[in-house]
Write a structure and sequence with these properties.
Layout: H1 4-23, E1 38-45, E2 49-50, H2 54-64, E3 69-72, E4 79-80, E5 85-92, H3 93-123, E6 130-132, H4 142-151, E7 165-167, H5 169-175, H6 178-188, E8 194-198, H7 201-209, E9 214-218, H8 222-232, E10 237-241, H9 249-253, E11 259-261, H10 264-267, E12 274-278
Parallel strand pairs: 6-11, 7-8, 8-9, 9-10, 10-11
Antiparallel strand pairs: 1-5, 1-12, 2-4, 3-5
Length: 279
């Protein structure tokens, strides 16, 4: 789970980087405007979307110019429609224009993630399944994207390689067996969740016998998923994974698995179309 402090520190660092790459040693075009000129602006969406990224926009303008006032009309998690105003800005015209692109990049990217997640979550709302993100995030944007996932009604898998075990085929081969890999995981980091990737029902049985907390069903057929749910009988949490997309999502959810992990939630996003207009 992402802590508020982790998210805060990540936001400061990544926003600073986005401004360094965009502004460099100064916005020469903004200097066309007389210093001290004040302006107001509004940002609208051209798409239906679910909003995520309010704090990143605020951080952009805090770093560009603390005198800029950002007045939000919507909140993260809100559904919006084309031409709806999302927020208004007041402050020095130079600062509004200098911060525009970085602020909109953050909002369009994170809202794109949230919108995709909301669509996927709505498709399986009639089941008890939880949709999980993966580590297939844009480099440098891990925590921001995982935050956006929650705005869209989906859930976070592990944050990285440190907060939970995910024992895959190569780990099992190197350790000698599923049971030995789980034993070593319990010894190395007691209390950390232990998940094991399985490719068939025999491996599922081995993982259950060894006491895995979560068992990933990697590219199981629908029939084998249903058999796995019956065999499991609630002993571990079951996670379906592997090539699952919008067209195959619902049948997988209806097998009775607990989780479905989907890399597309973060890696295949379509940014929300936004526009800033000076009044």
């Amino acid at each position: 789970m992402i802590s508020a402090e982790q998210l805060h520190q990540s936001r400061i660092e990544t926003v600073a980087q986005s401004l360094r790459e965009d502004v460099g040693d100064g916005d020469i075009t903004a200097r066309l405007i007389p210093d001290g000129t004040l302006a107001t602006a509004r940002v609208i969406t051209r798409d239906n979307a679910v909003i995520a990224g309010q704090a990143w926009v605020n951080e952009v303008f805090r770093q560009v110019d603390k005198s800029v006032a950002v007045h939000w009309v919507v909140r993260d998690g809100d559904q919006v429609v084309p031409d709806q105003v999302l927020f208004r800005l007041e402050g020095p015209a130079r600062s509004l224009l200098t911060g525009e692109r970085a602020a909109l990049n953050w909002l369009q990217t994170l809202s794109g993630v949230a919108t995709t997640c909301a669509d996927y979550a709505a498709r399986v709302a009639h089941t008890g399944v939880k949709l999980l993100d993966t580590r297939k995030t844009l480099p440098g944007l891990r925590l921001a994207q995982k935050y956006a996932v929650t705005c869209g009604g989906c859930y976070n898998h592990r944050l990285g390689l440190w907060d939970a075990f995910l024992i895959k085929e190569n780990h099992i081969a190197a350790c000698g067996s599923i049971a030995q890999a789980i034993h070593e995981a319990r010894r190395i980091a007691p209390g950390k969740p232990v998940e094991v990737e399985t490719e068939n029902l025999d491996e599922l049985s081995q993982a259950l016998d060894a006491g895995a907390d979560i068992i990933m069903l990697d590219e199981f057929s629908l029939a084998d998923m249903r058999a796995a749910v019956s065999l499991n009988a609630g002993r571990a949490k079951l996670e379906a994974s592997g090539g699952i997309h919008s067209e195959t999502l619902v049948p997988v959810a209806e097998t009775g698995v607990d989780y479905i992990s989907i890399g597309a939630l973060t890696k295949d996003l379509r940014a929300t179309d936004l526009s800033m207009r000076l009044d």
